[in-house]
Amino acid sequence: MSHPTGSAAKSAPGFYEFVALVALMMGITAFSIDNLLPAFGFIREHFALGNPNDVQLAVYAYLIGIGAAQIVYGPWSDVVGRRPVLMVGIAIYIAAGVLALVTDSFNTLIVARVIQGAGAGAARVLAVAIVRDRFEGREMARIMSLTMMVFLAVPILAPAAGSLILVFGSWRLIFVAMVALALVLALWFGLRMPETLHPEYRMAFSPRAIFAGMKLTVTTRRAVGYATAMGLMMGCLMAYVGSASQVFQTDVYQLGSLFPVLFAGVAGSMAVASFLNASLVRRMGMRRLSHGGLLGFLAVSVGLVAAAVAFGGKPPFWMFCTLIALGQFLFALTVPNFNSMAMEPLGSVAGTASSFIGCYTTLTAAVLGLFAGRAFDGTVLPLSLTYLVLCVLALVATLWAEHWRLFGHQA
C-alpha cells in the first residue's frame, strides 16, 4: 500500500473512511438507478407512454452515459490527477439532474439521463483507479469487496427511499435527492481525499501515451478476458434491474408497495456475499473463489430456465425469489474478483485501464440489459434465458483468460 506524503498525509482518510468514501463514489451510480424504480408507474403515467417497456429507457440511457464517458475520465485523470476530474464529473451530474427535474418531455428526460450518467462515470472509473493507486493483489481484492459491500447497501435502501420520497411528492423529488447526494460526495471528497495518483505514473498530455496505455490494456489477455466475463455477468444484473419493477411490482407477482422490500432482500444477499468475499479471498485466492462462484451461477441459471419452462413463465414466487437471490449472492463472489484480476497487471496505467474496462463492461451490460428488458413479455422466461446465455458466454471468456483452465495459479 502506498501513502500520501507531505501535508496531504495528515488529512488522508483512514482505512474505513477510505472504504466508505470510495463506496459512495460507486454507490451514487446505483442510487441513481434503484431509487427511480418505484416511480416507473408514475413516470409512465406522467408522460403517457404507450409501450410500458419504454420507461426502462430511463435506466439504460443512464448506463449508456456512464459507459461511454468512462473512456475519457481515466486517461484524463492520469494526466491531471484524480481529484479535478472527479469534481468535473460531479458538476456534470448535478447539472443533468436539474434538467431531469424540470423537463416536461420524456425525450429530454432520456437525454438528461444520458448526460447524468456521463457525469457519474467519473465517480465509477476513479473509484477503481483510486483503489488501484493505493492497493494491489489480494489486499486490493479485499478493499474492492468491502467497498462493494457498502455499495450494495444502496440497492437495499434506494427503492425504499424512492418510495418514501413518493409519499411526500412527485417522482421529480427523486432527482432532488440525487443532486443532494452528489453535493455530499463533492464536499466529502474535496475535504478528505488527497491526490492518490503516484507522481511517477503521472502522464504528460500525449495522445501517443494515452494510446500506449490503451494498447497495453486491450492486448493483456487476462484484462480483456476478465473484463468481458464481467461485462456479461453485469448484463445479467442489468437485465434484472431493468425488469424488476415489472416482474415483481406490477405484471408477474404484483407486489405493489412491497416491491422495495423484496428488492432489498435480494440486494441483501449480495451484500452478505461481498462481506464473505472480503474475508475468504485472502485465504482462498481470487481465482478459486470467483471461478467457483461462476460455476454456481451457471447452475442457478439452469434452474431459473427450468422453473420458468415448467410453470409457464410464472414459477411460484418463493422459488423464483430463492433462485434470484442465490444467483445475486454468487454474482457478488465473482464480479469484484474479476474486476481485481483484470486490473492487477495494469498498475502503471490504472486510470486508462479502469476507463477502458469500465466503459467496455458498462456498455456491454447496458446493451445486453436493454435487449433483455425490451423482451419482457409478462413472464420471467426472457430474464431467465438471459441469465443462462450470458453466464455460458462469461464462462467461455474466463476460460480464454486463463488459457482454458479454471482454478489455476491462486492470485
Percent of residues in beta strands: under 5%
CATH architecture label: Up-down Bundle
Helix-residue proportion: over 70%
Q: What is the H level of CATH, i.e. the homologous superfamily?
A: MFS general substrate transporter like domains
**Structural category:** mainly alpha
Please tell me about this protein's structure.
It is a multi-pass membrane protein. The chain crosses the membrane at residues 18-43, 55-73, 85-103, 109-131, 143-167, 173-191, 223-241, 261-281, 293-311, 317-338, 350-373, 379-401. Pfam families: MFS_1. Residues 15-406 form the Major facilitator superfamily (MFS) profile domain. The chain has 411 residues and is an all-alpha fold. The protein has one domain (13-401): Up-down Bundle (Growth Hormone, Chain: A), CATH 1.20.1250.20. 79% of the residues lie in helices and 0% in strands. It contains 16 helices and no strands. The protein has helices at residues 7-11, 15-34, 40-46, 57-80, 82-102, 106-134, 137-151, 153-168, 172-192, 207-218, 221-250, 259-284, 286-310, 317-343, 350-374, 381-401. Helix 10 packs across helix 15 and helix 12 (259-284) packs across helix 14 (317-343). The two termini are 17 Å apart.
Topology, element by element:
Layout: H1 7-11, H2 15-34, H3 40-46, H4 57-80, H5 82-102, H6 106-134, H7 137-151, H8 153-168, H9 172-192, H10 207-218, H11 221-250, H12 259-284, H13 286-310, H14 317-343, H15 350-374, H16 381-401
Helix pairs in contact: 2-6, 2-7, 2-8, 2-9, 4-5, 4-6, 4-15, 5-6, 5-9, 6-15, 7-12, 7-14, 8-12, 10-15, 11-14, 11-15, 11-16, 12-13, 12-14, 13-14, 13-16
